[in-house]
């Protein structure tokens, strides 16, 4: 026996001290084996994402596993696995002496490690080492057929048997084992194979799973008939062994063998494609993968999400999400070339309440599916977005109010605007920009006296170019940035004189969140999707809104007052309000290349974009059919505005209305004499491009 000590370790089993095991103990002592503590990293578990009500909306996982205690596993499953893998499990120590001697004899005959003789404890050790491997080299080392590896497993098995009871070891083994078909652990396997919990497994089902652990890749029923036939044969081997050991009768075994394999292939839940809220799901996933709060490196963050067994509570509101989805479906069909997208954000917290789009999210199994996040920026799985058009005029309005202009202050705007000199505008680097040879127009012209109110209500391009010139381009850019404005593609903002006309590509989340800050009286809060994360250990981390005062509250109040008129007297007048205090701004880009509406109440803000993802410069919104309706030209009030209105009416149903704070009349004045008279204004269809932006033709009414 001493001469065979080098081969003994292939058996990896330490017998109980005394009796027939004395010789083996001596051999083990010859190679210096002592119990070693096994580091047991947490098992990779499924992370569950929940909505604000606590309902599951998505799952993320690297290994699909649901850890369950031993008392939630059917007794017949425990009996089956012990019968086939280690029938003396409850009788021996870390080594099964009979299995070791059998393996030793086989290995001596073959001259190598032909048979392992591993106990369930040793198999558990092997699985732990394999799961802890970070690289391919480490994984190969955990699987290599060598005596060195067997020696290490034996040392660890000795430590495990010293640390845990037999029941604890069996529970750990059943939760770590791989059964095939992507199912890790007996609970996931029971659901994947048979559509039941581990506590509900029948004899044939338990025998099937017990048989699968020996070579789960060869018997993977998901791989086709050949693999299923192998699994069926393996199941019958388990049944025969259970009968041989007296755990079941021969009649029970024979009856169980008559049963069909019964593999259901229940889809493993998870991934954003299967989520009810796929675009929000993509946002949450990217928020964790890109946020250092969830791990210092990208690899750590991915492991945290896919292996952590997290419960992730989010801000998404089912009722508000349903409202957005229904409104979009009413106005834009999934088969339409243009795509509508909408985000709803809560003022004062930045909580994202809804993210919806007219096309389904997926891997382009059909032409209508979108493989990127239509509602968010590139950092959250989105694309380049669409130019925001005249929604950016709001930032110029805010800047003017910050600099002391009253809402009734104004000037005469012509039918066209040409920068008087190259240095008329300077970007935030102090570099002169502008093209004095280029004229921004209102197409049909809108000459006359306009104020901050009337110029905003009717989205007059030439008025806002003059206003931006007066308050300073960089100051307008700073205002926009203070409200979280950044390009959807992640590149720096384009700082040209047409900034106020919305030349930068944006996403609905960013725009809605900026407008939410106005609704919150200037309190800007970063977009927020996650409110709490509970780890598998029970550790819970709550996440609070990240807010700051970006605007003087009275400036925000005055802007809200002006923007209220857009819905009652301006470009949205034909669409109308929502029966409570609300404000917003339409946006139509150059030649109707894309269209927007961004609006808010003190309780909820939303932004809707509409454009053709094939390319807005080539595929404009002219002469198009959207949602079954024909449009000669699409404006911000044509489709985005109605979507926003229908959404808000439904989303805010049952929410007590909050009024806007009244305007400080002493500081910002009223309309007064400067708004007298009737001014004909015909805003352009352009905007967002070099010629500027505007909205649908309207008439300014006397005040």
TrEMBL record:
Keywords: Carboxypeptidase, Cell shape, Cell wall biogenesis/degradation, Glycosyltransferase, Hydrolase, Multifunctional enzyme, Peptidoglycan synthesis, Protease, Transferase
Domain Glycosyl transferase family: 54-242
Entry protein name: Penicillin-binding protein
GO cellular component, as recorded: outer membrane-bounded periplasmic space
Domain of life: Bacteria
Biased composition (Gly residues): 685-695
Disordered as annotated region, ranges: 682-703
GO annotation terms (biological process): cell wall organization; peptidoglycan biosynthetic process; proteolysis; regulation of cell shape
InterPro entries noted in UniProt: Beta-lactam/transpept-like (IPR012338), Glyco_trans_51 (IPR001264), Glycosyltr_51/Transpeptidase (IPR050396), Lysozyme-like_dom_sf (IPR023346), PBP_transglycosylase (IPR036950), PCN-bd_Tpept (IPR001460)
Family named by the database record: In the C-terminal section; belongs to the transpeptidase family. In the N-terminal section; belongs to the glycosyltransferase 51 family.
